Amino acid sequence: MLNQFKNNNTLKYIVALIIILANNLFSQEINDEYNLELNKISNQVWSQYNNNGQDLSQVQFNYNVSYDSEKTDFKLNFFTLQNKIFIGESFYKVELFNNIYLKTGKYYRDFSIYLNDDLSSGSLLISRNAEPMPKIGLLSSYEINQNLGFSFGISHALFVRNAIYTAAPMLHEKFIYLNYSKNQNEYGVGFVHNAVWGGATEDYGYFPNTFKDFLKIFISADGPLLEGEPHANALGNHLGIWDFHYKKTVDSREIKIYYQHFFEDTSGLRFANKSDGLWGLELYNYINNTKILFEYLNTTNQNRNPPYVQDYYYHHYQYPAGWSYKGYTIGNPFINSGNYSNTNPSQVLHFGIQNYKNDKYKLKLLLARRINIADSIKYKLLVGKTIKSLEWNFFIYGGEGGKRNTGIKINYML
Predict the structure, then answer these.
(1) Mean pLDDT across the chain, nearest whole number?
(2) What is the distance of C-alpha 280 from the center of its chain?
(3) How far is it, in rounded angstroms, from Cα 64 to Cα 33?
(4) 171 and 184 in contact (C-beta within 8 Å)?
């Protein structure tokens, strides 16, 4: 049986076991959780979307450990699939000085923190559809007064070499948010900018990757004029969102409204692509611990009045893999990445409901359907019960081509 494992995977198992034992023996403040998931293999939407870049296999083991303090956060997540170990969201965050934090590891995002990743169809920029990318960043916030404040950050991440990229591209990310809270009302507006740059392909060779080029990426400056083009284009592949949200809390109820407006160039920055983006409404009742979410995703204005507005959002001709990491879309999974033939506009309605009753019973339902083309309703239903430290979950998902899949997930929490 040991012959099924390559030496490097065997080493990963040994390291993972040492980490688990060390945490249990030497730390009483670390939170541990073990998950065992048993599935029937199927190519269903919900078996592939927002599953951290992994297709569900028949047997999956997952381990989470986390530690939070005032100045330090630590998280480790790994799971086994098909005799291999994968590292999930794992990072170390530490305060350097005066509310400035360094964060390094594999992690998703520090913006759009209002978004409910358990129920949402997925952030337009960084969702939980793909694996987290290796990343290092700086984060901070500043309070102007008790009601008004800023939060901001910058990070650098790395893609991988593959059949498309002979050298791995890099990802630049920065964001800034203005937040205002008063009388149980919270308003937020943010600007998030991402850019794929550097790396190399067979067709174009090495892309500019010096520090001077990074400064151009930072301000979205033009690169060199290429042969056959009427004018110089911005260096790299730029993506971003205007991010708006409003939250109001009344007694034991909360309402949240949000809109992520997508832009790829200055036309989208000026809202020339109309209402494209992710619209959401979430209701939360604290008494019965129920959350209900409605979302509308629209990308039908991505190619209005070309070439003035000709975006294709997750695709870029110099970076053929598009807005993806290890074969999975980095942002919302209902928007295709890759070549132009797969960048058809989308209109999607998405619904989610989640109920945790007395911390013993769990119900979660997800529904989604494209409304601009003929489509069936995709669904995922999860029912769970907690007995002491064990949580049992049974789920059914399907709705695509009449297929249905079932599974069982067992969580053990210390």
Answers:
(1) 82
(2) 16
(3) 5
(4) no
> Is the Cβ–Cβ distance between 61 and 98 less than 8 Å?
no
Residue 8 is classified by DSSP as H
Q: Which of 304, 308, 278, 283 is nearest to 293 (CA)?
A: 283
DSSP line for 339-375: SGGG----EEEEEEEEEEETTTEEEEEEEEEESSS--
Cβ–Cβ under 8 Å, residues 326 and 385: no
Task: Quick: pLDDT tens for 131-154.
Answer: 999 999 999 999 999 999 999 999
Q: Which helix (H) or strand (E) holds 410?
A: strand 404-413
| pLDDT tens column, 278-322 | 999 999 998 888 999 999 999 887 766 555 455 578 888 888 888
Q: Computed from CA positions of residues 132, 359, 349, 114, in that sequence, does the dihedral angle turn out positive or negative?
A: negative
* Cβ neighbours of 344 (radius 10 Å): 16
Torsions phi, psi of 249, nearest 5?
-115, 125
At residue 215's C-alpha, the angle toward residues 209 and 216, to 5°, is 80
Which string of DSSP letters, residue by residue, matches 259-293? EEEEESSHHHHTTTTTT-EEEEEEEEETTTTEEEE
Residues 65/68/71/72 CA torsion (nearest 10 deg):
0
Distance from C-alpha of 258 to C-alpha of 268, rounded to nearest angstrom? 18
CA-CA distance, 113 to 390, in Å (whole number)?
29
